[in-house]
Amino acid sequence: MALHEHQLLRHTVKFRPLQVLRTEELTPSMRRVVVGGPALEGFDSPAPDDHVKLFFPNAAGEFVVPTMTEHGPRYPEGQEPSPARDYTPRWWDLEAGELAIDFVLHGDGVASRWASNAKPGDAIAVGGPRGSHITADDFDTYVLIGDETALPAIARWLEQLPEGARAQVYVEVPSAEDRQELPEDERIAVSWLERNWFDAATSTLLEDVFTDFEEPEGDTFYWIATESRRARMMRKYLEGHLGVPKEWIRSKGYWKAHGDEHEGD
């Protein structure tokens, strides 16, 4: 097997009608909603940064989800599609029939409104994941960089950290109260960067990490998830200034500064 060989897995997409089982306030900015039901049977999410698509009731209070075709998803004609947003599954327990999704509470977007008001019995539909990007497990170090929307994926990265590998983690959050418990041992170093409620789209705390950055010894994989423009610029810096091979970087825009809300966790 070649060094640092990534894999892309494709999954059969299923749309699962589920219900809220309970909620948990994680921090002032994040709320966990645990959903479940018989339709969760067979659910799987192999990669730490997988995303599922959450479907919320449309204006008529109905769930109108697409049918997967050879040309992609198709919605029924004459019906208003359900609003949908992408989120990373935090954890799931098929024996208990539970799936946890962590929502950043911000603004007035459809997902934030729903999560803020979610209560046991509320309905939601979940589709996917459609595919999983399995990062090679033979890097010496994994550098994980993200804002609060990336916390569910970062936590999963650390829980699945390959044996013998190290992790350097840089997390930007609105305030000190928004820190969360993350797996941490002698192989893992976590740095919390607090914006103190400065605008997340124009913050440079994550970018400033590279001012005096010392590249880890050995081969290093970089994972970045934050606002779309910021993620793109950090990728360009790693490639152009540090000479990191593009295959050793996975950069994801989890939200857009001018969108109606964050697209993920």
UniProtKB/TrEMBL annotation:
PROSITE patterns: FAD_FR (PS51384). SUPFAM superfamilies: Riboflavin synthase domain-like (SSF63380). Residues 13-136 form the FAD-binding FR-type domain. CDD domains: siderophore_interacting. Signal peptide: none annotated. Belongs to the SIP oxidoreductase family. This is Siderophore-interacting protein.
